[in-house]
């Protein structure tokens, strides 16, 4: 019975090896083709080249109130946080500093990644030339859109690849998953309250958005730092405001 059991096991192993061999024979060419097509996919190349760079830029912008180089800011923990609403007077509500916050941030991202876009396209061109392609690259425009739960970067560069046949590409799209769009909507609402009433009830937002944490840090000279955090992703957006400030020795 022991010998019969061993024989049975060997037979099963043999059948498994044959089955695996058949599967490799049937599907390996398709897998090889898939890998080849991905490495030769200009859109995938640009996605890989730009995705991390965009994420790094967005992280800096999110921690600085939406500007790469804030001009009017509160220095909090050695980090310049831009005032999105401000007055230098006492007892007076603030004035909104970035009424077009979404457009401003989109422009900031575009300006910051423009040199990187050029470098990525040069790398793309060199990569295909090294593979024996004749490459014609025509520079286009770059647009950045903040959309729900994502950031879309569209590149209208034109690319022509010739190696026997010719392939033409006119638009490249890079998608980055990010909650900046949602943060901006909440920040704009809070800024409107600051401008109208000089204060924000943060619990209202946390009751409505259950994945949102809002920190309100009052500073000695009357400024307030707001830190918005997504509890699920850990993503943050922070900004400064100075509204209905009290003179030293008064206030809350």
What does this structure look like?
The protein has 3 domains: 1-39; 42-56 and 107-177; 61-101 and 180-242, no CATH class. It has helices at residues 2-39, 42-63, 101-130, 180-197, 202-208; strands at 73-76, 79-86, 95-96, 134-138, 142-147, 150-155, 158-163, 165-169, 172-177, 212-218, 223-230, 236-242. The strands form 3 sheets. Strands 1, 2, 3, 10, 11 and 12 form a 6-stranded mixed sheet that branches. The protein contains 5 helices and 12 strands. The protein has 252 residues and is α+β, with helices and mostly antiparallel strands. The longest helix has 38 residues, at 2-39. Mean pLDDT is 89; it is low at 24-38. Strand 2 (79-86) and strand 3 form a beta hairpin. It is elongated. Helix 2 runs antiparallel to helix 3. Helix content is 46%, strand content 28%.
Shape: elongated
Give the SSE order as H and E letters. HHEEEHEEEEEEHHEEE
How much strand content do the residues show? 25-35%
Number of domains: 3
End-to-end gap: 88 Å
DSSP, total strands: 12
The percent range for helix content is: 40-55%
Mean pLDDT: 89
pLDDT < 50 stretches: 24-38
Report the biggest beta sheet as strand number plus sense, adding barrel if it closes: 6 strands, mixed
Q: What is the gyration radius calculated from CA atoms?
A: 27 Å
Structural class: alpha+beta
Count of DSSP helices? 5
